[in-house]
Specification:
By secondary structure, this protein is mainly beta. It has five helices and 28 strands.
Length: 361
C-alpha cells in the first residue's frame, strides 16, 4: 500500500475515533508529557529574553500576559491548497512549515482564542525552547509559552508570534502501540485577524490570505453578508461572534472554522430552537476538542436546517450542558459543515462574513 493511502486510512480512523467510534483493539488516547522542561535537548527561555516579555500573571488558567515581538512577512496575496486532511475533517486546514523544515497541518481556527498552539510533539521534533507556566491549580497537563521562530504557509511567514503549548497530544493506538498521532498546529483568531481578509474556497479547496488588499467581490449580489464582532478579554483571548439566522431566528454564535461539525450549542439555546425543529433523535456521546479534551454532549442530525439563506441537509448538532467549558463564552459554536459546498470570506477590515450564493442549474 502506498504511503499516501496509508495516511488517508489512518486519518480516517483518527477522525472516526475522535467522533466517538470504537474499533477494538484500536482506541484513541490522550498522551501527556509533563517533563518537557527536563529533556536534555529542550532549552528554557528566560521571561525577558528576546523576543519575550512576560509581564506578569495571575492565578487563573490562560490569563498570563505574554507579549512577543512579532511580524508577518508576505509578498502579494497568497493562495494555498488545503491540506489533505480536509477531505475527511472538513475543518479549515493548510500545510505549514517550521524553520526546521518539518511540515505540519495548520488548522485555521477562529474558535481558538489565542495566536498559535502547538503540542509536545512539535516541541520535541523541532527542539523549541519553552517557558513553562505554573498555576495554583493541580493541573495534570503541563503548559506554557514556547519560542516559535517561524511558521510559513505558502508565501506567508509568521515570525516570533506568541505561541502556547500543552504537554500532551492525541494518538490512535493498536494493542497499546501508536499508529497515528495528532500533529496539527492551531492558528487562532489573534493571528488570523492580522490579515485584511481570508478566503475559504471550499469548492477549489484553497485558502487565500491578504495583508494589504481589502476584499472586493466581483459581484456583491452573488454574496450574502453577515456582520460579526471580535471581543477580547483581559487575558488577550479573542472571540469572533457572528449574527446569522438559524431556523428562522437570528442568533449570535461563535464562529469555529477549526471544526468540520455543524452546531455545538448549549441546552438553553436548544430549548429555544427545538420548538422549530422536529423529529431529531439525540443520543448521548462525547466530542473531542483539542486543548480541552473529551466533552459530554448529546448528538443528533437534523434532516433540513435553515442557516442564513441556505438549507442544509443532514445538519449535525451537538448539545452541551450550560456549564460546559466549550460554551463558557457563548451560547454555541457554528462549524464549517454548513459551508462545505461554497466559498466563505472573513473580511476583518469591515467585520463581515461573506458567503457565496450557489447558482442552481
Amino acid at each position: 500500500m502506498q504511503r499516501s493511502n496509508q495516511s488517508v486510512i489512518l486519518l480516517g480512523l483518527f477522525l472516526c475515533l475522535q467522533a466517538g467510534c470504537s474499533v477494538y483493539p484500536i482506541r484513541m488516547v490522550v498522551v501527556n508529557d509533563n517533563d518537557l522542561e527536563g529533556k536534555a535537548d529542550i532549552s528554557l527561555t528566560a521571561p525577558n529574553d528576546e523576543p519575550y516579555s512576560i509581564e506578569g500573571a495571575n492565578n487563573k488558567n490562560w490569563d498570563y500576559r505574554g507579549q512577543i515581538n512579532r511580524g508577518t512577512q508576505q509578498g502579494n496575496r497568497s493562495r494555498v491548497k488545503y491540506h489533505s486532511s480536509y477531505s475527511l475533517s472538513r475543518w479549515m486546514v493548510v500545510e505549514g512549515r517550521m524553520s526546521s523544515g518539518r511540515k505540519y497541518p495548520v488548522i485555521l481556527d477562529t474558535g481558538a482564542s489565542l495566536a498559535l498552539f502547538v503540542n509536545d510533539i512539535h516541541i520535541l521534533e523541532n527542539k523549541l525552547s519553552i517557558y513553562p507556566l505554573k498555576t495554583n491549580n493541580d493541573e495534570s497537563v503541563s503548559w506554557g509559552m514556547c519560542r516559535l521562530p517561524e511558521l510559513s504557509i505558502g508565501e506567508v511567514t509568521l515570525v516570533n508570534w506568541p505561541c502556547f503549548y500543552r504537554g500532551q497530544h492525541a494518538e490512535v493506538q493498536m494493542f497499546g502501540l501508536p499508529i497515528a498521532r495528532d500533529k496539527a498546529v492551531i492558528m487562532g483568531l489573534v493571528a488570523l485577524r492580522e490579515f485584511k481578509y481570508i478566503v475559504f474556497d471550499n469548492v477549489k479547496r484553497e485558502a487565500e490570505f491578504s495583508l494589504e488588499e481589502v476584499f472586493k467581490p466581483r459581484n456583491s449580489d452573488l454574496w450574502t453578508q453577515y456582520s460579526f464582532v471580535i471581543e477580547e478579554d483581559l487575558g488577550g483571548n479573542a472571540f469572533l461572534f457572528v449574527k446569522i439566522p438559524i431556523a428562522g431566528e437570528e442568533i449570535e454564535l461563535q464562529l469555529d472554522t477549526g471544526s468540520g461539525r455543524g452546531l455545538a450549542i448549549t441546552e438553553e439555546l436548544w430549548k429555544r430552537m427545538r420548538k422549530k425543529i422536529r423529529n431529531v433523535k439525540l443520543r448521548k456521546g462525547r466530542d473531542l476538542y483539542p486543548y480541552i479534551g473529551w466533552l459530554a454532549c448529546r448528538r443528533g442530525v437534523i434532516t433540513e436546517l435553515k442557516v442564513g439563506g441556505r438549507t442544509i441537509k443532514n445538519a449535525k448538532i451537538s448539545i452541551f450542558p450550560n456549564d460546559s467549558p466549550l460554551v463558557e463564552q457563548c451560547d454555541g459554536l457554528l462549524g464549517m459543515q454548513f459551508f462545505q459546498d461554497t466559498t466563505m470570506v472573513l473580511d476583518f477590515e469591515r467585520n463581515l462574513m461573506w458567503v457565496k450564493i450557489l447558482r442552481r442549474s
